[in-house]
Amino acid sequence: MRYTYFIRTVSVLATLLISPAVLAQAGGPGTLTLAMPIEPPNLDPTSAAAAAIREVTYRNIYEGLTRIDRTGAVQPALAESWTLAADGLTYIFKLRPNVLFHNGSPLTSADVKFSLDRARAPDSTNAQKPLFEPIAEVSTPDPLTAVITLKRPTGLFLWNLGWGDAVIMSERNIATNKTNPIGTGAFKFASWTRGDRIVLEKNPAFRDAATVKLTKVTFRFISDAQAQVSALKAGEVDAMPNLGAPELFEAFQKDARFKTVAGNTEGEVVAGFNNARKPFDDVRVRRALTQAVDRKALIDAAYNGSGQPIGSHFSPSQPGYVDLTGVLPYDPKAAKAGLAAAGYPNGFTATLRMPQMTYARRAAEVLAAMFQDVGVTLKLEPIEFPGQWLDQVFKRTDYDMTIVAHTEPLDLGIYARDSYYFNYQSTELKTLMADVAATSDTSQRLALLGQAQRRLAEDAPALFLFLLPKLGVWNAKLTGLWENQPIPANDVVDVAWQ
Amino acid sequence: MLRPILQRLGSAAVTLFLGSALLFLVLEVLPGDPAAVMLGLEARPDTLAAVRAELGLDQPALLRYLAWVGGMIQGDFGLSYTYRVPVADLIAERLSLTVPLALLAILISTALALPLGTLAAAKHGKAADAGVMLFAQLGVAVPNFWIGLLLILLFSLTWPLFPVGSFPGWGDGLLPGLRALFLPAVALALPQAAILARVTRAAVLEVMGEDYIRTARAKGLSNRRILIRHALRAALLPVITILGLQFSFLVAGAILVENIFALPGLGRLLYQAMNQRDVIVVKDVAMLLAAFVILVNLLVDLAYLWLDPRLRRGA
After folding, report:
1. What is the pLDDT of residues B277-300, one digit of tens each?
2. Alpha-carbon distance A278 to A289, whole Å?
3. Would the pLDDT of A340 be above 70?
4. DSSP class of residue A391?
5. Cα A106 from Cα A121, distance rounded (Å)
6. Around Cβ A408, how many Cβ atoms within 10 Å?
7. Residue A127 and residue B42: Cβ atoms within 8 Å?
8. Chains A, B: CB pairs < 8 Å
9. Residues 6 or more apart from A258 whose CB is under 8 A from it?
């Protein structure tokens, strides 16, 4: 696939020559056709981790007790209100009355109990099962009240309930939700042509149906970056919330028919060290290598300049973010001195397992060049993501370095785990993360999160590079699409045509 | 006549069985656990175990192999790990795109290659010959996905004659479907046509030197009649061989071309299933393609028997 870059460059030139046409709504008035690079494997977000499932179903089809909005804030959803008892352990949720599932059955507290109990059961296949681990009991005093008792205070509990993995389903539909999803949302499932498209229709029985402007939403799956651009230019697709090829983004920025937004995701691109392997077990080596990296130049090369540099494993769009890019700034001289102090005056040779994603390949190539400047030779070894990578790097930790984006929101807790692929051990971080989980007071919790970020920035268990941007391109007449991606979602409930 | 046919049928069956065992083995040692791919970076051991049990991956390999082969013999292709729908349904959906696409590509490539190759042979050493050879050289050298991109740029964006990668299905009638498949079929067909034209030219040239052509000429038959009635028919043998071999190339090409044109065909299903470690879909599709290639080879063998009487007597 060496041709890809060349093809894209030629194609940009060629697409620029095409005379502008008027873009109509791809599927007719009141409809939206949105393209995604990856097709969801099924439509049950409680059964698998694939972000694509949430990118079709989140809020559109399924809802949870709470939801996370476009800014990352927690909003009421199926629960219209809640109270937390003084013990910090008992949440009482008041459910919205008259909520119907798409098959007409009413939502009750029994559905809440069923969904949460199922997610934390021993045989649960929920990809985010740890989110539900703090729950001790769910009880249902009346059909519109659900009481959740926790084992210990959990600061982010309401936010956790807003994840796509925590949506409320009815027991009757569990077996069929993967292929025929029944939720409570503003849109209901209409059809799925596998490999091509999923069609949703407006749910006329939705509680706020009058505010929902779209009548039909089509999700099309186009994996090839060039095909995405072709479909947008030809008006066959109205929106591409996350364009695959950053170098094609500029061409759209100059085109008045389109609106372009370079937003944030929660995906931290990090080049992980195997902290159990020499020489990366030495913090002096990891710190020195961090100073060998010019993040700005790396972002220019890997993502055409879009994407924010990060100094720790934390997204700048989350509350509590501390800018730590200055802790170990780019300084090749200091990097060389650090390596010499650690006993590597002439550098060393290491291997980086490089997944096939464009950002990873380009970032790895730039990293190798920057490492060469301080005397470290980085051999790049291609590896297939996710299949091979999960096996060799993630499970067996058979690697020196690798590079991948961690897309779950607020996931710096991975560095506090005993068996995570970085093989990083820090009692201090473990204590900090345990305190974060147990602290309900927001300002106190954010302060602790700040300390944890700093600990990571100083220990450098991985190279913290940049935040994966969300390069959105859509018809200039569309309003209401998310500009940032605080969680995986294409929430189209508030989308309208001007 | 019967014995050579039976022999060929027998060897096809053995190949099929060996193919299934090899395929199963290869996918068994392939790194990448379907459950891990489904659950992503946050998965915990107990959740992984629950998913593996749900997919039946906790069974011993031999049992799974027997269950797979046994199921296929009975027409049960199993349930896709990721989509959770019967694999047979998935394949059937995709075949309605890929079979017409492949047939259209074969049709276009044959329609181009046979006349061009024969023409080049008839005008051996002249300008027409050089022209055909240049086309053949270019066609072999340029990859089909590149041709696909150029076709999209020209005929979908600059002059919007054809849709970009959306397949309306056959529900709206024959014409919209054929229109959507035309460009991808051309992209697939051009490299094949180039190879086929070269083979046709070489085969016709070789036959033209044979004694019986001289005899035909001595009888006073026209050049045209000699070319079509005698030379081309005898030259068809190698052409059919190549045509048969090209089926497997078409499948490989379809994976790329279907991606470029964003068409939901069998090639794209195989590619996606491989990425998601939907091993059962990979196994079934690969087996189906293997069976198909074996069947085509069998048909080519049988066509030999028909075209070349000498083979009917020997083994």
Report:
1. 889 999 999 898 888 888 888 887
2. 14
3. yes
4. I
5. 24
6. 20
7. yes
8. 159
9. A232, A252, A473, A474, A475, A476
Asked if the Cβ–Cβ distance from A7 to B275 is below 8 Å, we say no
Of A41, A127, A227, the CB nearest to B260: A227
CA-based nearest distance A210→chain B, Å: 32
- One-character DSSP codes across B13-62: HHHHHHHHHHHHHHHHHSS--HHHHHHGGG--HHHHHHHHHHHTTTS-HH
Q: Class of the B87-313 domain?
A: mainly alpha
At residue A16, does pLDDT exceed 50? no
Q: Do B156 and A234 touch (CB under 8 A)?
A: yes
Considering only residues 236 to 275 of chain B, which have any Cβ-Cβ distance to chain A shorter than 8 Å?
259-265, 268-269, 272, 274-275
B143, B261, B278 ranked by CB distance to A227: nearest: B261
A357-376: pLDDT as tens digits: 889 999 999 999 999 999 99
Q: Where are the domains of chain B?
A: 2-73, 87-313
**A31-36/A66-68 β-pairing:** unpaired
- pLDDT of amino acid B1: 66
Question: What ipTM, to 2 d.p.?
Answer: 0.73
SS3 B5: helix
Bigger pLDDT: A456 or B160?
Answer: A456
| pLDDT band at residue A19 using 50, 70 and 90 as cut-offs | very low
pLDDT reading at A71 higher than 80: yes
Contact between chains at B41 and A394 (C-beta distance less than 8 A): yes
Which pTM value belongs to this model? 0.82
CA B217, CA B231: separation in Å to the nearest integer?
A: 12
Is the alpha carbon torsion for A383, A386, A388, A392 positive or negative?
Answer: positive
